[in-house]
Give the backbone structure.
Amino acid sequence: MPQDLAILPDEYRTADEDDLEKRIRAKKEEFGKKLLILTHHYQRVEIVRMGDRVGDSYGLAKIAANSPDAETIAFCGVHFMAEAADVLTAPNQKVYLTNATAGCPMADMAPTGKVYDAWDSIESVLGKNKVVPISYMNTTADLKAFTGRNGGLICTSSNADAAFKWAYERFEKLFFFPDQHLGRNTAKKYGVPKDQVVLYDTRKPGGGIDENTLKKARVILWQGHCYVHTKFKPEHIDLWREKNPKVKIVVHPECPEDVVDKADAVGSTSYIVEYCEEAPPGSVIAIGTELNLIHRMAVTHKDKKIYELAGDTCPVCSNMFRTTLADLCYTLENPEKANQIVVPDEIKKDAKIALERMLEIGK
Ligand code: SF4
């Protein structure tokens, strides 16, 4: 990652917000349909305001795949999302990640070599064609390619249920990485018994799973997690219900199982957005997800009381928060120096197969 790009020239760092907004709008005007600014729901409110479209990782991948006129895509999100957009767009379309240092710690928990080793070890016990990889969107393009090559598909929190269904129609067992919580919560929803869900520990030989247990398993989980969504605890829900029996608790499926079990509703980022939109005026909602999204929901729906679930912690994704108006403005004004994401063709080919399978199954 080109670290020097993280430090913008002073002219950008010291510019005031109004000036930056004016300059971004001028670029949008100049490029028209040839420019598409995609913003993730966890971005700062002023970034979402400047964007053409806002969405979760599934929605943004779909928009990128269906925007052939956009010669320049400025992606305000994290690295794996911009990579997926590059995989799904044509060679004449350029994808930029507006802040070069915005990564995802969960994706970093699945280094390519370790996943390959685990796969070899699993196949050495189960044999070929018994198990299929399902990769959560939060992985490198390399691992998406691995997934495509091995008959699997990508999923997001919007379509993990559909991905399980797709995979079980074709294979006996699933190897789900990197988010153990989304994998475990989806397996439970799908009715996979608890003793058939195992956690692969890369620090131990064979993942610390004995052969008999692995042969009985139907879901093999990777030991990854999101540090934002694992901040939420069942006690936070108890406290809210004690304080206000009318409260509705809505959480993201990257939260641990005991939190998901206690919540009134569970769903992807887009689901949470719709939940807030559709709740009747006067509703009290406590949400277990990223703070920037909760804040935007609270200021957008002033007729409802929308709160963050935890209270004693600060569930901000610091990687999403890195992107500023200065980054976006710099990218649009200096594309030749900005952080273009280019996935090599040999990786693109197989990664595309896995991503297209995801788009085919829909939500
Ligand atoms: S919220 Fe969690 S999973 Fe999403 S980008 Fe941030 S660290 Fe990664």
About this structure: Residues 345-361 form the longest helix (17 residues).
